[in-house]
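Reading a protein record of the kind used here takes only a little practice. Think of the row as the fold of the chain written in a discrete alphabet. A record is reproduced here so that you can trace the correspondence yourselves:
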Amino acid sequence: MDWTRLEVSGRVTAVQRGICAGVTAEGTVFTAQLRLPHLRPTTYDDVLVDSFGVLGVAPGDETWLTGRGADGRLHLWSSGDDATVEAHSLYDIDAMWAAPTLDTGTELLLTAHLTDGDWRLRTFDRRSAMAGGLQKVSDLVLAGSPDAGLTVGCPVKEPLVVAGRLGESGSASAWALGESAWRRVHLAPTPTALTSVAYAWGGRHTWIGGVADGRAVVYELLPLPFRGPLRTTPVPMPTLELVALPEGHGRPLVVVDDVVGDVPLVVAAMSRGNRLCWHDGSEWKALPAPDGPLRAACVSGGAVHLLVGDSLWSIEDPLGISG
């Protein structure tokens, strides 16, 4: 099996549940549905963004995108099947970063802003955000910029989980969105860093990936009705000694999103290079992956799709059970 690169005139900057988005060499936005063989990207010539490209993307009946437009302000764009785009300014909610996502089927928008030098995460119903309305729950403190210190999934049926250097302590932690507040997720063994959140296809599992004592660790969120911190259990993993990466230079471990099955696929940054790792039912196996900073990964259309740096690479699903 060989990896195939998505050919685009520009950079891929966001991947989420079967779709990628980015910025062309001319500064316009493009999206591509993820399949093998690769489909031709759709370019939106009227949507210009800055050099950061598309900050976040979320699929659905419409494709939702966020980025900073030609006017220098943060925008939320929606696009239907006819490739027309509608722009929604986020000026009224004072956002400096934003990403569309879901929570048990509810359309949300996560934003971040600076207050007295501290980054704070806010959560809005998407339509409320477009109207300049009120946030759903109280702020969650970020220890650093959201690009480097925050990882977000896009669940269909499950609660939204965010992970990274969060909370008042700024330590590696994960939080799930409750009805009226963020709920902390209990993690044991204690992680050094959290780098990925992924959901199994059909709402079967929520996985949180990261590093503990230099090794790969994946936690599964347990749907137990505790009133305190939500509980997890560690997923049995092979011994993967991960490379220590400077902040902003990729993620040492990425859990692949939208996998069909009960065991996660992961992509690990190791001393001998990046590796795609999976369990075939009897043992763990590994396959070399493209070199570079790991950003995100998902399964779609019979293939695993991996964002490495600003390039999207795809390979046939080694388990052969993807949607």
